Structure formats: structure tokens, C-alpha cells
User: Fold Dipeptide epimerase from Lysinibacillus halotolerans.
Amino acid sequence: MKIKDIVIGVVEAPLITPFKTALRTVYYIRNIAIYVHADDGQIGIGEAAPTAVITGETNASITEAINEYIKPAIIGMDVEDISQIMERLDKSIYKNTSAKAAIDMAIYDLLAKRYQAPLYKLLGGYRKELVTDITISVNETAEMVKDSLEAIKRGFQILKIKVGKDPAGDIARILAIRDAVGPTITLRVDANQGWTPKEAVRIIRALEDANANIELVEQPVHYSDIEGMQYVTANTITNILADESVFSPKDAITVIEKRAADLINIKLMKTGGIYQAQKICNIAEANGIQCMIGCMLETKISVSAAAHFAASQKNITMVDLDGPILCVKDPVAGGPIFNGQSISMLDKPGIGFSL
Ligand SMILES: C[C@H](N)C(=O)N[C@@H](CCC(=O)O)C(=O)O
Ligand SMILES: [Mg+2]
Assistant:
């Protein structure tokens, strides 16, 4: 099964409410869809999200990276030579991880279809069901409390609370949410790099003193401030999760060696796809570090690929795959079933979309 052509399209989905983090506000998803055509007529599907503030990519850069660099590097290759394809993909252009992720997942989709196997089984098949959290955008406290209670009414038991935009008000925001939702709901906090190391320690310790029972705090400080992350991890009890600080296996080794975090968030848009994500997950597992699977603002196409990857790995113990849940409707039919907080893998070949 040889790679014959790569076709680029657009995938769009309006969001139910604006998505707000310390880094950006988004009203509408407009991502790149990828169709990798094989010489036997099969098509593999992928998606790239243009998260300029995190990966540095735009829809224009993703399109250019694929057309000018990635496509010439892998066209004509046999889908079964996966390691060789992934080596060429990695070397075809520096960074551009979301462009690479879209191609990587489309090729894995084709490989799994070649063997008539669901992708999660081909990758290891550890489990069939995942439970995702849902994001509560950063807003004024009252609005975040209201959004948290609505999410619980919709059946979500794990909330990912965005903070870091107004550090002075963050303790009050988080405590008000804990107060409103009660003790049984799991709360994750994501500062998206919005705090200084000293601020982070002060805020997290205040939450600990108030018995807020926060499961983890994600990327408290700037992605490049590994020493700052190390300082926060060393001076708090709460688990610290590295997100924007870990794109590559090398980044994971740095964070682990420096004890800069307790946990790692793997996103296909940061790793450049499943092949590199597996390496990070294995490195973390060998070092006793559990991983979260995360997503950017992505639709069901790429989030489904991430779900297959997560389902295949024992060491992925936390799931933040709420992209499709934040959309008014899915732009594609098929794939795993997203029902409230549960994501169920089906036994259709590949990622599960009929193309
Ligand atoms: C969508 C997901 N829950 C999430 O929060 N992802 C990112 C930010 C994504 C983005 O800005 O597109 C995260 O920081 O974990
Ligand atoms: Mg994050």
C-alpha cells in the first residue's frame, strides 16, 4: 500500500461558547483536514490545529509545510514501512508539529485499515473506554461557577479549570468552584503559563491550605522556564503537570531529569503525531511518570486519533479530549463514540471514519 497523494482541505466547527485561556480566546474552529490517498484506493484522514501561540503554526504555515516539504519527502513510500516514513516526516522540516501530526495520524489510519484493525488495537489495545474532563474557560468567578455547575449537570465528573489570566483572582476563582461543586468532583487547574514561579507556589500552597483538593496543576509557568517549574514542583505538594514545556522525547527527558514536573501532558499537535507520542509515553512510564492525553482546539478527526492512541497505552491515566464536546456539532460522522464524559472505541478499521 503506497502513498499516492496528499490532499489538503479545511474543517470548520463553531464552538458552543468562546474558549478562553491565559494565552488566547477562540470563537470558531477552522483547522486543516488531511486526506492521504493510497494506491489501492484507501484514504487515511488527519487534522492539524493552527495553535500559533503554542506551536507557532497557522493554517497557511501548515499548508506550506505539507505541500512543499512533507509531501515530497514521503510520496511513493509503503505505508507498512512506518518507521522509515516517520523518520522522513520528522526530518522533512524543523518543528511544524501539527502539520506532521496530521500526516502521521492519516498514515496510521491507513496502516490500521491495511490490517483491518481498529487503530487502538494495532497500537497496543490496552482499553476500550476513556473518561475525559471538560474545560471551564477563564472568566469572572460567577461565570466560571455557573459553567462548572452546568458541566456537572451534563454528566462531567472532572473539570479542567483555566486560570492564569488574572493571577490575583485565581485563588478565589478555584475556591468558589470547589465550594459550589462539592468534594466529589475532580478539579484540574491549567494556568497555561500565566503565573510566575513565586506566584504559582503562593497560589498552590493557598489551595493546599484551604483543602481544595486539586488533582493537578498544569503548566503553571512559562514553557521555557524549566527551573521555575522545578521550583514550583519542589515547593508544593500538588502534582504539577508539564504541558507546553514538553513537545519532544528530548523535552520529556529534560523535565524528568530536572524533576520539573510530576506528570506530562502528551498532545499529538505538540509531538508531531502518534509515533513520537509513543516514545514520550514510554520514556515517562520507564521513569514512573504518568501521562495525560490532551488536545488543542481540534474537531473529532484528530481527537479520535488521540483517543485511539490513549486507549492503547496503560501509562495514559488522564484524558483531556474535550475538543469535540466544545463544538456545536461534529464536522464528520464516524469514529469513537463521544457521549458526555465517556469516549468509547469501536471495532471499525483504522480511526473509524468511512471515507
Ligand atoms: C482543549 C483542551 N481542553 C485544552 O485546554 N487544551 C490546551 C489549550 C488548547 C488551545 O489553546 O487550543 C491546554 O493548554 O491544555
Ligand atoms: Mg494545558
User: Anything to note?
Assistant: The CA atoms of residues 53 and 249 lie 21 Å apart.
